[in-house]
Hints:
Helices cover about 35% and strands about 25% of the residues. By secondary structure, the protein is an alpha+beta fold. It has 2 domains: about 170 residues, 2-Layer Sandwich (Ribosomal Protein S5, domain 2); about 130 residues, Alpha-Beta Plaits (2-Layer Sandwich). Strands 1, 2, 3, 4, 5, 6 and 11 form a 7-stranded mixed sheet that branches. Strand 8 and strand 9 form a beta hairpin. The relative contact order is 0.20. The model has no long low-confidence stretch (mean pLDDT about 95). Bound molecules: L-homoserine. The site of L-homoserine (HSE) has 13 residues, from helix 4 and helix 5.
Amino acid sequence: MSSGAVRGVRVEVPATTANLGAGFDVLGLALDITNVLEFSLSDTPGVEVHIHGPGADRLPRDSSHLAVQAAWRFYEESGLPRPEGLKVRQRLGVPLAGGLGSSATAVVGGILAAAALSGADWSMEHVLELASAIEGHPDNVAPALLGGLVVSVREESGKVCAVPVPVNEAWSPAAVLAVPDFQLKTSDARAVLRPAVTLADAVYNVGRAALFVAAAAAGRTDCLSVCMGDRLHQAERSCLIPGLASVFAAARAAGALGVALSGAGPTVLALAEPADAEAVGQAMVRAFADAGVSANIIHTAPRYDGATVYTIRS
Length: 314
Ligand code: HSE
């Protein structure tokens, strides 16, 4: 058993892909790419922030960093004092603002780091409530915290109800991400959506989102192209993402089991048999290039471990 005072904590938080096509604002899947956040107590008063990895220069290096802001909210809610001196290190593996839950990693990481550093005994539900309140929606923070495929909804009272899906071990598609080299703000990607939809379109998505969950639980990937269909958000968003329809078509033609916008985009997620993953990625890059968009491919997979906290004792 470890002993000594906790001097620091390291939290590893996975990227997440929300919506999966039909499950707009309710489905999220953790992916095997992580951001790592370290908080350590310092004798120097104030906050010192160091960030490493792609996109590091785009993030603030002071207490306005989202992970620090999330930590401050934790101390406020807990009625605990903030540490006088705090050193923060972040190692980025998740592309920024691409629809892969990078802000959720900072929010979840900041809360969990602060909780571990202060020794507070917060339940997962409590962490999820605060993380969802900061993030504004639970569909990224829930899988980032819990791992795997998670269904989350906000109840009328505002409380978040999140349930991980017991995914069958036979359900193991490769996840191929085409990450365009431009950013899209979630607020801009929501501004183009219709305020009301038809009953037929609502039924279309409800059925497919439910089918996605049932298929994952049953270990079936054969119906993913049906499950990932959508009539609520992707068509409207295509005006913000050049070549989106042809990227979807190219992924399917190269053998993708299903393809969808990752979260609010602009990243595109294809689920594929591992043997087809390479060809699917190349087809998506070519289709984006034909539309004048340069994109990187990331090959990854669903991840069933959620955020993991390691303590560093003196
Ligand atoms: N589900 C949200 C949306 C974003 O599609 O706008 C979650 O990343």
